[in-house]
Amino acid sequence: MLVVNLSEDTAAVLEGEVLRLSGQVDAGVVTRVYDQGLKNLSAPVTEVDCHSLKGADSTCLALLLHLQSRLSKPLKVVGLPDELRVLVDLYGLQDLLELA
């Protein structure tokens, strides 16, 4: 299990192939999560749980696309915030992400 606590309410927890994101995810958070564990994973992340996100910007979407690039199928994303769903639609990424 990988746990990256970034603040009192922002964290990234990797349990098996599931990454759980919480709090406010922006460029600083994505950089720290990537540097502190995601760049050296031996097994790919197949699912990202975003239910506990309070906010996210386009760098969170970039992280999702990076994780998907390691898979031969769409990345399952649960609870994606509306602001990121808009970007997925705008950029035509529906085939890369399985939104649940």
Automatic annotation (TrEMBL):
Signal peptide: none annotated. Pfam families: STAS_2. Coiled coil: none annotated. InterPro entries: MlaB-like_STAS, STAS_dom, STAS_dom_sf. It comes from the Bacteria. Residues 18-100 form the STAS domain. This is STAS domain-containing protein. The lineage of its organism: Bacteria, Pseudomonadati, Pseudomonadota, Gammaproteobacteria, Thiotrichales.
